[in-house]
Every structure is written in C-alpha cells, then in structure tokens.
Amino acid sequence: MSLLRVCCTAARGFASRRVFLESTMNTAGLRPAGYASGGVTKDKEPLKKAKTPQGRFDMEETESKSKDVLERFPDDVNPETKEKGGPRGPEPTRYGDWERKGRCIDF
Amino acid sequence: MAAVCAASRVLGTKILSCKSLPAVCQANRQLHFSIYGKRGDAKISDGVSNQYPVVDHEFDAVVVGAGGAGLRAAFGLSEAGFNTACVTKLFPTRSHTVAAQGGINAALGNMEQDDWRWHFYDTVKGSDWLGDQDAIHYMTEQAPAAVVELENFGMPFSRTDDGKIYQRAFGGQSLKFGKGGQAHRCCCVADRTGHSLLHTLYGRSLRYDTSYFVEYFALDLLMEDGECKGVIALCMEDGSIHRFRAKNTVIATGGYGRTFFSCTSAHTSTGDGNAMVTRAGLPCQDLEFVQFHPTGIYGAGCLITEGCRGEGGILINSEGERFMERYAPNAKDLASRDVVSRSMTIEIREGRGVGPDKDHVHLQLHHLPPQQLAARLPGISETAMIFAGVDVTKEPIPVLPTVHYNMGGIPTNYKGQVITYKDGQDHVVPGLYACGEAGCASVHGANRLGANSLLDLVVFGRACALTIAEIDTPGEKLSPLKPNAGEASVANLDKMRYANGSTRTSEIRLNMQKTMQSHAAVFRTGDVLKEGCVKMESVYKSMDDIKTFDRGIVWNTDLVETLELQNLMLNAVQTIVSAEARKESRGAHAREDFKDRVDEYDYSKPLQGQVKKPFEQHWRKHTLSYVDPETGKVTLEYRPVIDSSLDAEDCAAIPPAIRSY
C-alpha cells in the first residue's frame, strides 16, 4: 500500500513539484552573492524576470521574428521571380545544389 | 480519490507482473490495443512459441514502412478496397521522408515548353546507363500526373503569377535531349517539400480505413514455397509478436545510411527491408552504389553546401595546406564533387586528417569578410554553431564525405513486383512488392539525380497499389500457413534479448561504421576494398559475442537496436563485397584502379567494327547479392540492364553513350 501511495503521490505531485523546483532554482541563482550578508554591493546585472510558464509566453512576438535569418517576402511573393509560396531567402539552387541556411539539402 | 486509487492499482499490478511472475503467465494480460471492428479476427496462437504470445492477423495487403512510398501504397490499396495494414516502426510523420526538403521533378511544362521524354533522357543519362529504361519511362511519363495528384491531395506547391506550379532549374535537367539548355522542372513547397509530402499523404490516408500498426518492428517475411505470405513483427509497446498474414506484402522501409559513420540519414535508416529480403534467400540489387557528398559536418551528418566553396571557402588538412591545389590545379576547391570527396579521403588515409582520430578535414571560411558571408550565405553561422559548435567567422568547420542516398535495394520490375533472376530470366516472387528507397526498380541506376527520389516514392508507391489491384481482388481467402511460421525470427529475438557476450551493440556498430567509412566510402581501390571485406567479415563474426543489457520485453530499445544492427550488418557486407567485385567506375561507384566504364562496346569510339563483349566481360549489368546469414558470406550474381522502354514508338530507348556534363 505504501508503494502505491508513493506511486500515486509521485505521479500527481511530479508535474507541480518540477515547476516549483525550477522557479526556486531560478530565483536562487539570480540573487547576487552578497545579498544575504546585506552589504552595499550593487547588482552587476538587473534581476531578470523569473521564467514561470506564464512569464515565458509573455515574450515579445517581434523579438523572435527578427532573429529569423531568412526574411519573409512581402505577401510571400518573391519580388524577382514572382514565385508565390516559395523558399525564403536567396534562390536555393544558385550554387547547383539545393541550399538552405548554408546546408545542402539535395544535390 | 477513488479514481486515483484505481489508477494506481492498475499501475501497481503492471509493475508487479513484470518483475515477479514468469514469462508464461504474461500471455494472459491485457493486450495494449483493443480488438474491435476489423481487427476482430486477431487470434492468439501458441504454434510459434510458448514463451512469447503471438497474435495472428489476416489482411488483404500489408505495407511495411510508412514513409512517402509506404503511405502512398497503403492508401492506394485502401482506396482500391483492400483491407490493408501498415506496419511501421515509427509514427508515419516521423519517417525520414520528412527530411527530404529538396523539390520533386516533373515535366509539367509550366515555365517553358517541356516533354517528359526529355526528362526520361536526363534520368537515363544520369544513371550512367545502369537504370532500367522501362522503369524510367514509367516514372517520367507518370511524373506530371503524380505531381498534379499530390497537388489535388492538398500539397501546397509554390506558384507562378498565373497560378501554375512554379518550377525551377535543378538536378541536371535539360531540354531537347541535352541539346536545349537548362530545363526548369523542379516543383517545391517553400523549403520543405518532403515534410509537406509526408503530411499530405498521411492526412489523405486517414480518409481511408487503413489499419496502422505504429511502433511495430518488422522482423521477417513469412515465406513459404518461394511465395511471400506476410510479415512477423514485434510490438515494441508491449512486447507481443504479431504475424500479419496477407496475400500481398509491400516493403517500403527506406535506405541504410547508418552503415556508414557519417551519413545524413536518421538513426532509423537501418535497411530493415533489404535485410528481411536477404534472410528470405532473395537477392538485393546494386548495393555498391551509394551516393556521397564531400562536405558533411563531422558528427552531425548534415551537409554543407557547395556554395561555401563557391564563395571562397577552402578545404584545409592538418598541416594547414589547401590540399585541393594538388589534386585539381585549375579548379582547386571548385572541382566536381567526386574529385573533392576522393581528395579529402586520400588526405585522411595518408594521415593528414584533423581531430583526435585524424578522420576528417577542415572547411575554412573565416578568411572571408563576415558581412559577405552573411549576405551571400545567410544562416550559415547559425548552422555551423548548431551542428558543429564552431563560430564560422573564427574557426573552420570539420567536414568529411557523407552518405546521402542508397541507389540500390530490392530488385523489382517497373510494376513494383520483386524479382529474382534464374536461368537468364526475371521471375516474379508472388506476393512481394517493394517501392521507395528500399526498392530498386531501377530508376536511379548508378547515380541519382536531384529531386528524382521524391518522384520515385510516389510513382512506385502508386504502381505497387495498382499492380496489386490488377492481380488480386479484395477479400480473397488466404492460403494456409504453417502454424510455426516465423519460429526462427522469434528464436533470434529471444537469443538477442538474453545475449550475454562481451561486446556491446554500440561498440560493434561503431566498428562497422568506421570500417565502412574508411574502406567502402568514396575512395575505392582493390587493396582498400579487399582489406575492408576481411575486416567486415571479422566484425560480422563479432556479432556472435554481442551483449545486451535490457532483459525486459516492454519497449526494449536495446533489443531493437541490436536487431537493427543485424540488419545493418547484412547491408554492409553486401555493399562492400559488391564494390570490391565491380572492377570499373560507373556513376557513384568510382574506383582509382579502374577509372573507366567497361561496357559491352567502347562507346567513346564509333561502334562500327567493334566486337560486342560477352556478358561476363563487361560491367553494364546489375549486381545481385545473396548472403548466408549464419556466416556472413556473400555470393554475387549478375543481371542484365533492361535497355528497351515500355513503348518504343512512344518513347525511343536511349542507346548508351559516354556521360559528360
């Protein structure tokens, strides 16, 4: 019976416990070294927002989009070849093989 | 609380039964799938083994593998009314087809005037006249219809301004039989044609009532009197054995890139179909033709585009020397792919490789201005950081020749039926079909053209379904099968599960991969290949001493990896022995000691006055390899190439000539 109880509590509490641990670890790691001693040490970097599941989804939409190296064409139409819905970025077959992000996909 | 207790009780009983009860009692536990609807005729039999529960299923057709070709065959059969099962070790959308992001060729004629006969010529020439012209005729003639059919299924091809499918120039395609300049035949879906193809086919297949058996590892074919009567498979989820009895079996299990140390294929490309056919005593065709790419990232296996060298990147050995200047003084790093691959391999063999094992070379890009690199090759710094862990503006990328595609496979005719060659004639094996990369129809011959393999998948997947619909009718009674059919496979499974030798599976696999990479890769000469054959024999024998650790039967990945290693071994020995025997250079099989093609006539000179060489003395023929699974000994036979197209008036066959681009 104790084995079963351990199993069921483990199964139920596992998900919530993992999130709990993650958030405490995050905040603990982010406190600067002299915090407990209460000295006048200034923070070298500003405190980051704890990445709780809710906080994670609050990231800016534009932030992730600008990191994409291959830009979308306006309306997905390639201005030179007038191809609709084609590959982004420069023409993939310009070197004789099918290139994307420096990788050769087909040759 | 009650629900939780009930759940934990079930959990508890499962835990207990796996540990304490003996194997025999597990036959009484609940099977993981509920038997309902058409699966109602699945019966548990104990004719095979009293240790392993074996479930028997009866279908009209079984398809092994659910990649592009497998899915097309499966729903083609369901559409024709057959009760079809699709047995796959991966979820359909995880098959390796999803990684094929290049385009698909078809002579639709949207960009300029085009004719499928010109596509036929290009493919025959690309295969170095080793492709069977009837199969190539079938594929290129069906290509436009196949692409339009895919588009009707919902595949979102990229479009021109007036709404037709946009085609671009790719893959050695020309107009007017090579005389009319570059042809634009390659259709694509943004950057992910293979991904989109697979998802389209999977979505379409759900309309029909194919029974999917996902995460079932096919062990062997059930052969009786030279006829294929089904497949025996291991359900990975609960460890039960299933026998799928069917009048028609279609093999679409993909290639075997994982026999080499560096390959672009997924870890699951282990040539299971080729091995199943070999164990059934049937031949595999042209396994020595393996397509390599010179610059694949060491360890990761993805390929770096030739554009890097085109923009000024150079290949460096351990001495910091730009070694391509020695091998190709004029073209240097821009020499053709096979020259570059061979030069890299020679440098590595002579000890000038880099890294702790000295088994690769460097591709240097940091001497180029970073803005130029980012402008001309956007995304390369990201690729290099993710896959090689290097900053491309400061360090070189480690590269080595990498396997990309296997042209060889299970020999079939143009209809997709598996054939054997006896007494000078092709004989069809009743009940067995093959398509996709696993099959060898042979459309790619000695070298595959870019964007032709996705076409191969859909055309021959459909061809298998059509042939079965032509020959067979749904609902036919199955011929009787011996009650102990599949016994040997289960015995082998049991042996591997309790294997207690001294070498682990991963060590033997690494030995095999390194041996194949250093002996059967791009650089092939007689001595190197012979040495490789001897080493592969000893690696094969070391399989007797294998050790596995997981003794369970539920989701035993150690066991499945060991079975996959057995399959890889059979493919590897056939590849290297066939390569050693073929004393010529043709397409992807290039030998240093026999640099020319050896055909029945010398096609570089006028044919008049030449004596035709007998079949035994020339090499324009298919290799058929058989293996004795006990000893690993390979026997080779040869089969002539089919030189006539399906309809000589409609499409004239192309007589052989010297291949030059």
Automatic annotation (TrEMBL), chain A:
| Skewed-composition ranges (Basic and acidic residues) | 57-86, 94-107
- Out of the domains of life, which is the source? Eukaryota
| Listed InterPro entries | SDHF4
| Pfam families (UniProt xref) | DUF1674
Q: Which GO terms describe its biological process?
A: mitochondrial respiratory chain complex II assembly
Extract one GO cellular component term from the record. mitochondrion
| Spans annotated as Disordered | 30-107
- Protein family (similarity comment): Belongs to the SDHAF4 family.
Name this protein carries in UniProt = Succinate dehydrogenase assembly factor 4, mitochondrial
Q: What is the lineage of its organism?
A: Eukaryota, Metazoa, Chordata, Craniata, Vertebrata
The gene behind this protein is sdhaf4
